[in-house]
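Action item from last meeting closed. Structure (107 res):
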């Protein structure tokens, strides 16, 4: 299990770096209202990249830090493909999310 946590932690670091390289990293957090969304990917209150930065990365980091069970059926890449359809600048980011989905589904 330790190796899985380490691998996922590395994926989160790469995800953050890639978001920054793509200029998708925000300097300020969304509103409390936006963060309280119950919609998938908080799609009704924030952009997908904001969800990755302010909800997904912190929640996954917490699970890893507390050595809690990780999701086994994650499918973030299809949402990324939908949101960034035709945006070739984000191909590496989407590819990374596919890899991350795959790591979690193989545990």
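Sequence:
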């Amino acid at each position: 299990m330790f190796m899985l946590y380490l691998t996922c932690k590395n994926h989160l670091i790469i995800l953050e770096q890639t978001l920054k390289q793509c200029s998708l990293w925000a300097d300020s957090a969304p509103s409390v209202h936006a963060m309280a969304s119950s919609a998938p990917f908080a799609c009704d209150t924030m952009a997908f990249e904001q969800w990755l930065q302010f909800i997904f990365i912190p929640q996954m980091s917490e699970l890893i830090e507390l050595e809690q069970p990780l999701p086994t059926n994650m499918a973030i890449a299809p949402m990324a493909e939908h949101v960034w359809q035709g945006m070739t600048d984000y191909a590496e980011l989407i590819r990374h999310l596919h890899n991350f989905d795959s790591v979690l589904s193989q545990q």
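Note appended to the action item: Residues 59 and 74 are 13 Å apart (CA to CA).
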